[in-house]
Write a structure and sequence with these properties.
Layout: H1 3-28, H2 31-51, H3 56-61, H4 68-87, H5 90-97, H6 100-105, H7 111-139, H8 149-173, H9 177-193, H10 206-212, H11 216-229, H12 234-262
Helix pairs in contact: 1-7, 2-4, 2-7, 4-7, 4-8, 4-9, 4-11, 7-8, 7-12, 8-9, 8-11, 8-12, 11-12
């Protein structure tokens, strides 16, 4: 590493932290939005979990021992992480629209640090909201080894980092709010539904199961479900972590490139 590169590296970390902290402070001021985003997952886990309780024989037929609500709770936790992450990029839109981004990119701060700081804050916020849903799940009777809480939250943070990259990239390329929301709605729910969130992969048609097998959401749900139920197998854990880590690495690279190229263009 050159002397210049070595001297610049601490500045990049500092710039990233500055952006990260600013995004967290904005989060504290949007409590009503936080509550609104939590309504849907809370309804899913309470209402849907009990509505489909009669499907327990189906999940037992593929080897899951437990109530249906135990099966679906990990999917709702990941749903919370997905939607919090993909909606998080809207702050980038406001920064562009009201001129803050234009001022930021003309300062000495690295553009990659802006993207990474936003992604880190969004992923942490997503984990915080997913943690609240996890607490609700425990309150209503979902069975879980409490020692698994920390690993589950670590997985959610890592997974959310990838989806926050999708959100920040969408905000960077969108020329209007309508385009941004269109991209987000196109990606969010379909990826969730194309996963074993509500029903096992074994019960899906072959072509849907094949599509779900390349969906990173599938692996996040499988590893979280395995941790929560205490049935996670080493092979499943290694495969899931490899897929999630690869997904995050790709999204960090894509987001950094797209953000540096697109964010200075007119909104």
């Amino acid at each position: 590493m050159t002397a210049t590169g070595g001297a610049r590296l601490p500045h990049i970390f500092g710039d990233t932290y500055t952006v990260f902290w600013r995004e967290l402070k904005r989060y504290r001021k949007s409590r009503s939005g936080v509550l609104i985003r939590m309504v849907q997952p809370a309804i899913w886990i309470v209402v849907i979990g009990n509505t489909f309780a009669g499907t327990q024989p189906l999940i037992e037929s593929v080897g899951f021992e437990g109530k249906y609500i135990d099966f679906m709770a990990p999917g709702v936790i990941i749903l919370t992480a997905i939607f919090t992450s993909v909606f998080g990029g809207v702050n980038t839109l406001w920064d562009r629209r009201y001129g803050f981004m234009a001022k930021t990119i003309t300062s000495p701060i690295s553009r990659s640090a802006i993207a990474l700081g936003k992604m880190g804050a969004i992923s942490l916020i997503a984990a915080m909201q997913a943690g609240i849903i996890l607490a609700i799940a425990l309150i209503i009777g979902v069975e879980m080894d409490l020692l698994a809480v920390a690993p589950v939250m670590a997985i959610v943070v890592l997974f959310s980092l990838g989806f926050s990259g999708i959100s920040v990239s969408a905000a960077a390329v969108s020329k209007s709010q309508e385009t941004f929301w269109g991209l987000i709605n196109f990606l969010g729910m379909p990826l969730f539904m194309l996963s074993p969130a509500l029903f096992p992969l074994e019960l899906l048609p072959d072509w849907l199961a094949a599509a779900a097998s390349v969906n990173p959401v599938t692996y996040a749900i499988l590893v979280v479900r395995g941790l929560m139920s205490g049935t996670l197998e080493p092979a499943t854990a290694l495969l899931a972590m490899a897929v999630i880590a690869g997904f995050v690495a790709v999204m960090v690279g894509i987001t950094t490139y797209v953000f540096m190229r697109e964010v200075s263009r007119p909104f």
